Amino acid sequence: MLVRDVDSTVGTPRHIRGKGWDSKRLVVAADGVCFSLHDTTVEEGTQMELQYRHHVEANYCFGGEGEVVDLASGERFKLRPGSVYVLDKHDRHLVRAVKGDLRLVCVFTPALAGEETHTADGGYEPIRAVPDSPAED
Question: Which family, according to the similarity comment (predicted)?
Fold first, then answer.
């Protein structure tokens, strides 16, 4: 069983910050499950263009108001507490925090290592497999 709280991640390598956002990675690849779970805050007024080419991401909004925009279609979706959106086709998208800080629970598969920050194209690199140890004779 794995039990962890948000406060225990603050100030550790699992607490990642960028311009206008903050992510506390509660469950990561090293925990041995097939997903990672993050408590993410997008500050009011922040807009981020993102695309996760190597991951599927599900997001559950539990605070603030915002929107997610599908950049392929231009379609806009309002986000408020109780909303969920899933980037199941590696969708290029915008996330905007409109009223208050947008608070999200984010689930990534495959799991993130936990210390990643966004690449220039707004995504994360895949985790590189660790080579097996050489067999002993």
Answer: Belongs to the ectoine synthase family.
